[in-house]
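ingest -> fold -> write
write: protein_1
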Amino acid sequence: MAALQLKSAKFRQEREHDWSRLSGLLEKVETRGARSLTDEQLLAIPVLYRSALSSLSVARATSLDQSLIEYLEGLCARAYFLVYGTRPWIAQRLAHFFTTGWSQAVKSIWKETLAAALITLFAVLLAYVLVSQNPDLYFSFVSPDLSQGRDPTASYKSLHDGLYDGGPADHLGPFAASLFQHNAQISLFCFALGFAFCVPTAMLLIQNGAMLGAMLAVFAAKGLGWNFAGWIMIHGVTELYAIILAGGAGFKIGLAVAFPGDRTRLDAASEAGRACGGAMAGVVLMLLIAGIIEGFGRQLITSDVARYAIGIGSGVLWLSYFYLPRPRKGLANVRL
C-alpha cells in the first residue's frame, strides 16, 4: 500500500502542473466566458486535454488511487464539453475571418509590412532616377516580354494609346487570368522564400518595385507620368499592397528563423508560418480582386479622374479595414 501511494504521489507530482493549468483555464471559461482567454490559452486547451486523457489512461491501467482517477475523470469530462462542443458552421468561420481574423493577422505583421513597403518604395524611386538619367538601363529592370513595347524607344502615340485604348473585349479575360497568375507567383514566392533569412523576399520586392519605377520613368519622359500613374493605380494599389503583405509575411518567417530564441529554427518558422496564414489567405483574395480590376476595369475605365478615385478609394478602404480599431474577439467566438 505504501509503495502504491508513493507511486501515485510521484505520478501526480510529474503531471500536476498541466492538470492545474487546464483546470484553471476551464474555470475561467466557466465563470467568465471564452472571451476572457487569449488566443494562446484557447489553443492550449486541446493540448492539455489530450495530456489529461493520457494521464487518466495510465492511472487506470496501473491501478493508482481512486481519488486521483476520479479527479482526472472529472477534469477530462469538463474539458470534453469545451473541446468537442458544437462547432461553428463554415459560414460562421468565414464571417469570423472577414470581420476579425484577417485584420488581426495583418496587424500582427505590421512592422514587417512597413519594412516591405519601404523596400518597394526605395526600389521604385531608385529605378525611376536611374532610367530617367540613362534610358539604356530600362531593360536591366524590365524584361522585353513584360514591357510589351512600353520602352524608351516607344513613341508618345503608342504609349498614349496603350493607356486609353481598351482593345478587344474578348482578350481581357485571358489577360486578367495571366496577370493574376504572375502576381500570385510573386506573392507566394515572397512568402515561401522568407525562410532563407529574408534575402529572397527582399530581392523579389526590389525587383517588383524597380520594374514599376522603370516603366514610370519611360512614361514620364514622354509627359505621360500622371496618366500612367492613374492607369496603374486602378488595380496597382490592391495588387502592390497584396505583394507587400506577402513580403511582410516572408520577413516574419525569415526573422523567426534568424532569431529563434529558445526554440529550434524549425519550430520558430512553423509558428511564424501559422501566424501569417490568415494574412496570406487574404493576399490571394486581394490578388484575385486586383486581377479582375486589371483585366477589365483598367481598360474599360479611361477617365483619369475615375482611375485615381478608384485607386485612392481602394487604398483608404484597405487601410481602414485592416488597421482601424475594432472590438477584439479573436478565437473567443469560435468554439474549439
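write: protein_2
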Amino acid sequence: MSGPDEFEAIARLFRPLTRGAPEALGLQDDAAAIPARPGYDLIVTKDAVVEGVHFPIGEAPDLAARKLLRVNLSDLAAKAAEPYGYFLAVSWPPSWDAAARESFVRGLDEDGRTFGLVLLGGDTTSTPGPMMASVTMLGWVPAGGMVRRGGARPGDLVLVSGPIGDGLLGLMAARGELAEPELEHRYRVPQPRLDLRDALRAHVSAAADISDGLIADAGHIAEASGAAITLRLEALPLSDGARRWLAGAGDKAEALLRLASGGDDYQIVCTAPPQAAAGLGLTVIGEVAEGTGVRVLLEGRTLDPGAGGWVHR
C-alpha cells in the first residue's frame, strides 16, 4: 500500500489497536516515544510468520494474527517479562482482500485485549506473495532480572512446563493427517506461558521457549551456558493425543525423537538448581553437566537426535 490508501488504512484498521496509548502518537508519526519505567529493563524480541510456512495457506486471517502475537509473547514468557506493546510490519498479497485484512486486525485486537498489548507503530506494504507479517514486541522486567539462555550450571536440573510434541501433531492434524482437533487448535492458537513469570524469576537459572524443538532449544541453552545437557525422553510429559499417536507409531525411540524435535510447542524449557526446581512444579526431564552439547537418552540408551529441531538457513 502507498500514498493516501496506506494512511487511510492505518487510521481505520490499526489506530484503534493503540487503545489511545500516548506513546503511539496516534500512529501519525514515523516513530513512537517510549517513556522509561524506573527500576525496569525494556525487553525487545522479534518474530515473523510467513503464509505457507508458519501457518497454512488459506488459514483464517484472525488465527494467523493471533499466532503472530503469541509466538512473540512466548519469547517474552521465556524471559519472564511482562508484555507491553508491539510494532507490526505486514506485507499484503493480492489474495488478502479488504475482508481478510479486517479479519487479521480483529485477531490482533482480540489477543491485544487478552494480553494487555498496545500497537505502537509499524509499516504496511504490498507483495506478490506470500503474506508475511513481523512483530517487534516489548516487555518489562525488573532491572537485571531477565532470565537468559546462558545461566545453566553443572548440577542444575532440566525441566519443561508442559506437553512436548503437540505442535508437530497439531500441524499434522491441520494437514488432515491426524484426527486430533484439540492438538490442531494448540498448533493454530498456541498458549504462551506468561503464567510462569514469577516462578521463572524466582527459581530458574536459564530458559528458552520451545519453538524450534525441545532438543534444539535445549541445545541453545547448552551452547549459551557453556555446559552439557542430558535429556531423558522417557520423562517427557505428553498430552493424551500424543500418547494415542505414540501407541500406534511403531518405533518408540524414533517417535519420541520426532516429538522432541518437532517444535511449535511454545512451552518453556528451563534449568534450575535441585533445591529451586522443587518450587517450580514443572516436569524434570534431564540435567546439566560439565561439557558441551545435548545428549539424548531413552531408558539409558543414547540416541542420535539429528538436527534436533528446526534448522534456520
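write: annotation protein_2
The CA atoms of residues 157 and 287 lie 4 Å apart.
The radius of gyration is 20 Å.
pipeline exit 0
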